[in-house]
Amino acid sequence: LTDARALELRADFPILSQQVHGKPLAYLDFGATAQRPQAVLDAELEFLTRHNSAVHRGAHELAALATGDFEEAREVVAEFVGADFDEIAWQAGATDALNTVANGIAAASRGRGGAASAPLRLGAGDEILITEAEHHANLVPWQELALATGATLRYVPVNDRGTWTIDDLRPLVTDRTRVIAFAHVSNVTGLIAPVAEIVELAASVGAITVLDACQSVPHRPVNFHELGVDFAAFSGHKMAGPNGIGVLYGRRERLEQLPPARTGGSMIEIVTMAETTFMAPPTRFEAGTQPVSQAVALAAACRYLSAIGMDAIRDHEEALGARMVAELNAIEGITVIGNDASVPRSGLAAFIVDGVHAHDVSQYLDAASIAVRAGHHCAQPLHRRLGVTASTRASSYLTTTNAEIDALLEAVSGIRSYFGADR
Ligand code: PMP
Q1: Could you give the CA distance from residue 287 to residue 326 in angstroms, rounded to a whole number?
Q2: Structure confidence at residue 57 (pLDDT)
Q3: Least confident of 46-60, 199-213, 286-300
Q4: Is the CA virtual torsion 212, 214, 220, 222 positive or negative?
Q5: Which secondary structure element, helix H or strand E, spans residue 209, and what is its range?
Q6: Residues within a 6 A CB radius of ligand 1
Q7: Which residue owns the Cα nearest ligand 1 atom 4?
Q8: CA 210 / ligand 1 centre spacing (Å)
Q9: Confidence band (pLDDT; 50, 70, 90) for 186?
Q10: Phi, psi (5° rounding) for residue 358?
């Protein structure tokens, strides 16, 4: 995308045309939550205005229309990520989806799901492998699973730059490895994981792969069938779609093995006072009244992004990301986390300002109408390993222009002297 095109797209997002502190807003916090274009807002409002209803059960006209919209949304989202429609289960978000997998494996390990779930069963001595750079959403559920099953949680350590390679991961894969869970794109370092190599290693020991695709699906073309992962998770709100909805992808045979972690209405076949049989996937992972308007709006987001082109969005962000890394790092006293030419990176940059806390950095930038994120970005172990408690993260998307990066760089170059940290 050219800057002119990014500016044109920016006009699709009503929230971005606001002034903040009397100046045009440079929103560089897309990694936390993306904004929504008018087309997505309209799709949700249109649904709520004309078709809103609970899906699947009702025999009335609105229920039929809503069910049609809901299942069509599933097809659109499935196509967007290279999956079949029945491999897509709606969840509340990526966190929820990852919990569904971990808790489902815990249930399988207790014998739930019978013989069908046996391939997912974990016990003492089995190993779950993650990385030290994971978001807490892809770490804590695995800690809980290890506690519940007696399995051991192991992790790929990061180096001093916060990155890792397949050579760091390979020696940790053993014949006891049952699960390898990792972020496709790190929300702190931007590192793009070597998915194909990991899938191959996992296959060589019969482990399943779980991909945290939160920071990849919104920003680059992703095809789960081509990647060959067993499970994947992402959130609507990070991809120009709504909050309160996310997706669990599971390869059909894996979804069939996974017992439901949440039970209740809408996911059952036959209920007696003694016992219950569950529906087939993906419905058995969708207990309770579903987020229908959100599903419709998420499909609208997929259509919007596809029309622009995920290749173009990726190229645009990677160029901005490379610029941020190089130019931020060149400023005295600024260190970009994950600055490592030997690994591929996405379009975000988290950085440390010597002598200034990330919260002060982000307030200083806010005064210049630049919105960034400050904190540990739900990755405390990574920050601890790097000897800091927090960093500041700027993250781009399709509307981000070089002018916004210029503004960021200019503001960042003044921070240390403002706070007296250069003396
Ligand atoms: N994983 C990664 C890499 C993320 O960036 C996020 C969101 N910060 C999550 C998981 C969790 O997503 P959500 O909060 O939408 O459930």
Answers
A1: 47
A2: 76
A3: 46-60
A4: positive
A5: strand 208-212
A6: 93-95, 135, 137-138, 183, 187, 212, 214-215, 235, 246, 378
A7: 214
A8: 14
A9: very high
A10: -55, -35
Mean pLDDT within 229-252:
98
Report which ligand 1 atom has the smallest distance to the Cα of 237.
Answer: 15
112 alpha carbon to ligand 1 midpoint, in Å? 28
- Region of 164 (left: φ > 0; alpha: ψ -120 to 50; beta: rest) is beta
pLDDT value at residue 124: 98
Instruction: Please identify, by atom number, the ligand 1 atom nearest to the C-alpha of residue 235.
Output: 15
Give backbone dihedrals phi and psi of 112, rounded to 5 degrees, phi first.
Answer: -65, 145
Q: What percent of the chain has pLDDT over 90?
A: 99
Does the structure show a pLDDT above 90 at 372?
yes
CA of 135 to the centre of ligand 1 (A): 7
Contact status, residue 252 vs residue 271, Cβ threshold 8 Å: no
Nearest-angstrom CA–CA distance, 244 and 283: 18
Q: Answer whether residue 11 shows pLDDT above 80.
A: yes
Q: Whose CA is nearest to atom 6 of ligand 1?
A: 214
Work out which ligand 1 atom sits closest to the CA atom of 137: 10
From the list 279, 312, 319, 378, the catalytic residue is 378
Phi-psi region of 293 (alpha: psi -120 to 50; beta: other; left: phi over 0): alpha
Which amino acid is present at 128? I
- Whole-number pLDDT of residue 39: 98
Q: Rounded to whole angstroms, how far apart are CA atoms 379 and 389?
A: 10
pTM above 0.90, yes or no: yes
Tell me the three state secondary structure of residue 362: helix
Q: Are 216 and 185 in contact (CB under 8 A)?
A: yes
Catalytic site includes residue 302? no
Question: In testing the pocket of ligand 1, which one of 33, 99, 135 has its CB within 8 Å of the most ligand atoms?
Answer: 135
State in Å: Cα 97 to ligand 1 middle. Answer: 10
Say if strands 19-20 and 23-24 run parallel, antiparallel, or are unpaired: antiparallel
Q: How far is the CA of 230 from the centre of ligand 1 (A)?
A: 19
Burial 191-206 (b: 16+ CB within 10 A, else e): bbbbbeebbebbeeee
Q: What count of residues does the chain have?
A: 423
What ipTM describes this predicted complex? 0.99
Count of CA atoms in the C-beta half-sphere (13 A) of 339: 18
Helix axes 61-80, 38-50, angle to 10 degrees: 150
